[in-house]
Amino acid sequence: MYDLAVIGGGVVGGMILRELSKYQLKVCLLEKENDVAMGQSKANSGIAHAGFDAAAGSLKAKFNLLGSKMMPEVTRELGVKYENNGSLVVAFSDEELATLEILKQRGEQNGVEGLEIIDRERLRELEPNISKNALGALHAKTGGIVCPYELTIAAIGNAMDNGADLFCNFAVTKIEGGYPSYRIFAEDGQVVEAKAIINCAGLGSQKIANLVGDNSFTIGGRKGEYILLDHDPEFVHNTLFFTPTAKGKGILVSRTVDNNILLGPTAEEVEEDDRATTAVGQAAILKKAQEMCENLPLGTKVTGFTGVRAYCDRHDFILEESKAAKGFFHCAGIESPGLTSAPAIAKFVVEELVAKYFALEKNPTFNPIRTPDYFFKNLSFEEKNALIQKEPAYGRMICRCEMVTEGEILRAMRENPKATDVDGVKRRVRAGMGRCQGGFCQPLVMELLAKEFGLAPNEITKKGKGSELLVGKCK
Ligand SMILES: Cc1cc2nc3c(=O)[nH]c(=O)nc-3n(C[C@H](O)[C@H](O)[C@H](O)COP(=O)(O)OP(=O)(O)OC[C@H]3O[C@@H](n4cnc5c(N)ncnc54)[C@H](O)[C@@H]3O)c2cc1C
Questions:
Q1: Which residues line ligand 1 (CB under 6 A)?
Q2: Which domains are present in the chain?
Q3: pLDDT the model gives residue 245
Q4: Catalytic one of 49, 231, 237, 330
Q5: What pLDDT shows up at residue 472?
């Protein structure tokens, strides 16, 4: 019997699992997909928001600020790329300049430090490619960028290194019993027993709540399409936002921590988890991005993708014990800035909610440090040479676009949480993430997966059962 079972392997469930592993508790994470970081935490903007956006007094405002402050330390411990690049909310009219003042005041009320309104000359100094129509901006110096799936995988891996268990392909469909003896059933008949449960199921969190008779909130999907351009570390430095209007925040233009240029997201209500990219959505992004910047290198488009926000009818984070089930905690409605807030949400959930039921005795062997998955490219010539002498697999380049070696892929398949499919390797070490989108390295990655797990090539999947990449022999 576990003390606690966390449902949902996104950044929130992952950070909570890691926080729980700091204590002497038997904990596990249940995820319906073949890997972790498969929901909102896979496809989002990757911005560690400064915290000026959320309404003062909301949970979003509180946890955004706390999370933004925790992010440098958490990412350092987990070996995850994070950069304090700053954010700029850009104004294109006098009306928008007035809105910047309101945003600045709101940010200051929320406790954000170092907010400054800058004029067009300073804006151009900071961002030489900004549109000539831009009049000024709100500069949030504490804004940052982080890779969302890298953070999720690292948090879960670190929790597992410290004793937590992970069950993938565990789609929760039924919950019986109650505190201190819940029985959690998966679609395929697997059962896990736990004294208490934490619901972090993102888009699925309403369904999980309903399983214990809790109908206190509804979750809907709002999809956001993106365009990813190739590496260009110089084109844009800060994250560029449009000034929000009654219609919403609009798209952003940003650099990612891996130096790609990211454009998006759109906002469209969807019935289900619809992750299709559309010609209309992609065209809308291009139009707006070109209003923000001049000389956008659009010819370097690598791919388009979509994330689906789990928005909630309460319009704020739900971080509470269910009124329908004792020892059953919700982390639901975690839309933006949920990525930024995740480390702070995890601390709150464990120290304020879980602590009511469990004595939090420190795990004396807890080690917060995890070495990065993807690193060879950034080593010096001498360091590369020394590593290859010791482990020749680092001398075989598998992904030429992103410069990923066999050594890194082997590590990704062996360390917690193991990459067991092609996309899992891609999210951990970026093989297949580059310009050719796996055209060159995918067969090589498949060979490595087959060898590592003793599988036939036609058993290798892109992202779990039903996504096999080979259908049979052609000769
Ligand atoms: C387009 C977009 C842009 C965003 N941009 C930002 C940003 O720049 N900065 C920021 O701070 N935030 C941003 N966010 C918000 C952020 O991505 C989310 O708040 C965060 O990822 C939520 O994490 P989560 O763990 O709650 O949910 P998820 O990552 O969705 O994880 C939920 C997990 O639960 C699993 N699950 C669901 N049902 C079941 C079940 N029945 N059984 C088992 N497992 C189940 C899912 O497979 C999934 O892995 C953005 C979100 C989107 C969609």
A1: 7-13, 30-33, 38-41, 44-47, 49, 170-172, 200-204, 208, 224, 265, 307-309, 334-340
A2: 2-41+149-218+314-356 (3.50.50.60), 87-141+220-310 (3.30.9.10), 376-459 (1.10.10)
A3: 84
A4: 49
A5: 83
